[in-house]
Hints:
A: mainly alpha, ABC transporter involved in vitamin B12 uptake, BtuC
Amino acid sequence: MSNVPALSLRRRIVGLAGSGTVATLILLLFALWVVFAIAIGDRFFSVNTLQSMAFQMPELGILSLAMMLALLSGGLNLSIIATANLSGLTIAFLLTRYIPESQGLAWVGIQVFAIAAGFAVAALVGLLNGFVIAYLGVSPILATLGTMTLCKGLAIGLSRGNVISGFPEPIVFIGNGTVFGVPFALIVLAFCALPVALMLNATPFGAKVYMIGSNEKATRYSGINTRAVLLKLYVFSSLLAGVAAVVMLARFNSANAAYGESYLLVTILAAVLGGIDPFGGFGKVGGLLLALIILQVISSAFNLLNLSQFLTLAIWGGILIAVAAVPNFAGKAPR
Amino acid sequence: MPESHIASFGRFRRSHEFWLLIVILGLCASLGFANAQFLTMQNLFDLLTSYAFVGILALGLLVVLIAGGIDISFTATASVAQYVTLSLANAYGANWIGVFAIAIGIGGALGALNAIFIQKLRIPSIIVSVATLNIFYGLLIFFTGGKYIYSLPDWFATGIFWFEFEWGKDSSYGVNLQILALALAFLVTWLLLNRTNIGRQIYAMGGNTDAAQRLGFHVFGLNILVYCYMGVMAGIASLIQAQLAQSVAPTVLVGKELDVVAAVVLGGASLMGGVGSVFGTFLGLTLLAVLQNGIILLGVSSYWSPFFVGLVILISVSATAWSQRERRSQSASR
């Protein structure tokens, strides 16, 4: 009986937010905020805590956006971490090779060129994924499993498993600097999330992606070139992994073939928690961002409470099941 | 009846398994030609021993995929089963039957938990298993502190060595725990899927769950069975892995899910359900094993071996998809 008012409150928020998952997530975030405020006190609201949250979120956030794009089309991109590491190593190699012996305009030019080269590598991987999935008809899980192994192999082979580190000031700033107190990496995340949200909600391309995710065959028969859309989508997904690469190598001031591997399943967890349908067709960037904030709040709070990060993992899993189960208890028909 | 044989061979020739078999035979022939070490009994037994862990898990996952679900929490299930079982065996003593009973019990219980979440809360299996992977693993490391166990009971560390026989001058072979468990897992899974009524029901349910429900299948019971089977396989695989590694390392198994998924899906099982075979899984597993082993025997630097593995996976899935696409466009308009 006690949860009846909560449900009606939820329904009211559903009306305001326009989506069931988003309403659940807003309620959950609010509840977590109250619980942690009581358990931790002022420290939870300190500028330091907020800033460290804002520093930690962008990597996972950008990678989750990359995963989200593939999920929306009914696919999956398991190669995002490997792509990020491969393009990160490319950038790191170019920087450490040419930066020490350059100055002035060349010094700036090399940094821009290195990042562009990293994006080019990411785009190539995306083209390969898109071609194999859209034009050869391989299932996304198999295709991206293949490119994941391929990219990781290439990264290990070329770097011989070594860490490349020591980058110039502007690059390090991307991961560690702040603008008016806001971490620059968070701004990068915003500059990724906004165009992706616009692309999905306000362009014909976005509409086609949602349609493919709902029913690929029907979309093809309605005259849409689904192959071209999928190819582009996987290139975008890969490019986002390229952006994540820059943030990652800047934050650690180093690059390696095996960084961030534990993020792979967490990106799926974040996306699904954010209301992205794992079978495609439904999900918004806003939901994903809310999910990321929730995951980050739990992680930071547990850190302040001196609880193990592994307990955080377990709680994340529990929250995912709880949120996924809410529609059934709220009386909505399950999909 | 020769005509039906010809017909069934024709069907086989067009199947996914046939192409896989061709690739594997081609690979084996060229590897055998390039390196005399490859086609030896020693290498065969080593391969079987080291791939038993992935193989047993793959058979469990095959059943889940055929039933129309997916489970990626099995590495965490295996870690939990391994840790708890061998801690108990160290503390209270046990025998072979005891440790396998405990591991199977733990694996089955965690599998049932997955099935209950999926069926009773009506959450898609991919969401549930991503969540339970984190829950099982997170709690295991939280409670154990991630400490390794190096001292195992003597009888467990010694293992078994049956049907010993001599081959050649000074080498003897036998069936060890890993090979025995792998062979039994193949046999039982094949019997379950091909020789029992339940196996037919699992295929039917994976093909069309709604239809199966309307026909009066006990869908909840079947799902419990399928996810328990996956859990039981994870429990068994965890013990033989600990026996091979001679230690319990709670952090090394999680992260290997995708190796198992690769073997099963390479073997032709569909993530849509209703499709897949034990023979296909055997071939998928063989392809990965031969490939990784062959690259080492060819003397390729170990830094480069994942690259070639990725390349062959990509080429073989592309070729399979392409050939099936060609056939479909020949036989009918898509």
